[in-house]
Amino acid sequence: MKGFAIFHHSVRQLAGNIGPALRISALLTAILQLLGYLLDVQGDLARYGIMLGTFGSGAFPWKSVLPYLAFSLLSGCWIGVGWCRYVLMEEQPGTVLPLFRPSRIVAYLVALLVLTLASVFAGFVLGFLAGFVLGFLKALNMIGETASVVMFLVLVLPVILVFSLRLSLGLPAAAIGEKPSMTASWRATRGYGLAILVASVLVILVIVLVALPVGLVFQPLSAPAWIWQGLIGWVTLMLGLSLSATLYGHCVQGRPLA
């Protein structure tokens, strides 16, 4: 099945190049986790949630969240450019960091922002339409509350996931210096909707399995939990990048999945 082949290639791509992957991403991921721990981002957000739930208002912790988000964006785009250029162009990373290419990082960031806006807009439109139809059926007592929520998730989330991934080929294109075009990305992935859905669901299942120990083993907000969450973030980022690079290599460059 094409979807499993895409998933298998993405995992093999990461596992078979673990050395370069770590040189590209390990230090930046560690710095991000250390920054989040020192700024106590999770603690601030948890306290904000308690204040919001108890008193209905509270000051959002921008002082800790903004620096964390800024470095998260920078490091994520830097890693994305480094990994895509390594996989698609065989560009070797530095000893502990990917090569710093400001123009490619900015192009990658712009492509990411465009992709995010397009996905949010599509999600809003699709969610509104699905909510309207399901609300109408619920008003006619044709479905219950639980069924409407389940149907909403089943109908909307897979479509948004496939939509976003089909447009995501602009990210590796920006990384390697090609023109990032959502139209070209959409055309290149025509006929791959089901395969992309299967591959992405398998990737999500792997991430869920990696994330299980956080709630079962570690104390919430503890240093070990924060370290493991860093591992979860790394797996999520690198598998996502590998999936995007695999799709670009196969759908645009015509590379085999074997």
Structure explained in plain terms:
This protein is mainly alpha-helical and 258 residues long. The protein has 10 helices and no strands. It has one domain.
Number of strands: 0
Query: How many distinct helices?
Result: 10
Helix content: over 70%
* Mean pLDDT level: 86
Strand count, sense and barrel status of the largest sheet are:
none
* Low-pLDDT residue intervals, each spanning 5 or more residues: none
What is the radius of gyration?
Answer: 20 Å
What is the string of helix and strand elements? Answer: HHHHHHHHHH
Question: How many domain units?
Answer: 1
Distance between the termini: 12 Å
Which class of secondary structure composition applies to the elements? mainly alpha
Binned strand content: under 5%
Key attributes of the depicted protein:
258 residues; mainly alpha; 10 helices; globular
Secondary structure: elements and pairs:
Blueprint: H1 2-15, H2 18-39, H3 41-55, H4 62-89, H5 102-139, H6 145-167, H7 170-176, H8 182-188, H9 193-217, H10 223-252
Quick recap:
This protein has 258 residues and is mostly helical. The protein is built from ten helices and no strands.
